[in-house]
Design brief:
Layout: H1 8-17, H2 22-34, E1 42-46, H3 52-57, E2 62-67, H4 70-79, E3 84-87, E4 99-104, H5 115-126, E5 129-137, E6 151-158, E7 161-172, E8 175-186, E9 189-200, H6 204-213, E10 216-221, E11 230-235
Parallel strand pairs: 1-2, 1-4, 2-3, 4-5
Antiparallel strand pairs: 5-11, 6-7, 7-8, 8-9, 10-11
The structure holds S-adenosylmethionine.
The site of S-adenosylmethionine (SAM) has 20 residues, from helix 3.
């Protein structure tokens, strides 16, 4: 079963309803990247879904997207005509080339069910990063942050389609379980369906450890995009690499702990658009 059977077009409608700002998020990612790499040229977005971040990245970079869900990829292809797409599993990823920037956003990494598979997934992502390049991964909740009490509703109200998604959270050991129930109504009638998503609750040190085991330098931005932080990895440059790192830039503390905001670099969103912890969702 594909991990995301949710109709890809509904997916976009629901995250618009949640006011998820992909353009702003892509900007934050690129600001992290440019702290290490002045002029990135190529970007690979793994688990790209319907291509919302790629649409923005592709304005300035030569982009490739990968996802396991063929339906999401079909939407992404329509949205981003200049982007190459590959239907592939991130864990077994082998595109035979490297990129200046590799991203894996919106907690997609948490579909890895164990720490061993997290490490193999991060190894696969790191294999695609040019020497001197950057890997940016957006995590999911940590075990300490997760709260079963997640009862949410999202509504899509379009002229030709009305849809509701309710969600309920629970957990089984270190796996968070999200049960989504959908009701979609069009002129042709109504349909209801259910989806269960299981996302592993990794600790920040497990993510940092996976980056280090893959040979990357690591920094953690505790705020990130959607309240879950960002893990930023850098592949050391070598004589073979074409990339030139940025020198003399402020950097976050290596492997800084989640929740320690004492050395923030001012990448957080302004007060007009700030996202509190309460807005975290999937
Ligand atoms: C929460 S969505 C995020 C999509 C997109 N990055 C975004 O920000 O909207 C998770 C995505 O991860 C993809 N995914 C899950 N497991 C995957 C895997 N093993 N390999 C590739 N894609 C995967 C799903 O198909 C889905 O599109």
């Amino acid at each position: 079963m594909s991990p995301s059977r949710l109709s890809a077009e509904l997916y976009d409608g629901f995250y618009d309803a949640l006011d998820k700002d992909y353009r702003w998020e892509a900007g934050v990612v690129l600001r992290h990247v440019r702290r290490h790499l002045r002029r990135p040229r190529t970007l690979l977005d793994v688990a790209c879904g319907t291509g919302r971040h790629l649409e923005v990245f592709a304005e300035t970079l030569d982009c490739t997207g990968v996802d396991l869900d063929a339906e999401a990829l079909a939407v992404a292809r329509r949205r981003c005509p200049g982007v190459r797409f590959e239907h592939a599993d991130l864990e077994a990823l082998d595109l035979g080339r490297r990129f200046d920037v590799v991203t894996c956003l919106f907690s997609s990494i948490a579909y890895m069910p164990t720490v061993a598979r997290l490490r193999s997934a991060v190894r696969a992502l790191a294999r695609h990063v040019e020497p001197g390049g950057v890997l940016v991964v957006e995590p999911w909740y940590t075990p300490d942050d997760w709260d079963d009490d997640q009862l949410n509703v999202l509504v899509v109200d379009e002229p030709d389609r009305k849809a509701v998604r309710t969600s309920r959270g629970s957990h089984r050991g270190l796996t968070s379980v999200l049960d989504f129930d959908f009701l979609v109504t069009t002129a042709a009638g109504s349909r209801r369906f259910h989806e269960r998503h299981e996302l592993r609750l990794f600790r920040t040190d497990q993510l940092v450890g996976a980056f280090e085991a893959a040979g990357l330098g690591v920094e953690v931005d505790p705020e990130g995009l959607f309240g879950h932080g960002l893990v930023v990895g850098t592949a050391s440059s070598s004589r073979n690499g074409h990339l030139r790192p940025v020198r003399g830039q402020e950097t976050l503390a290596p492997g800084r702990k989640h929740g320690d905001r004492s050395t923030r670099t001012g990448l957080q969103r302004g007060t007009d658009g700030g996202r509190g912890r309460g807005s975290r969702s999937v």
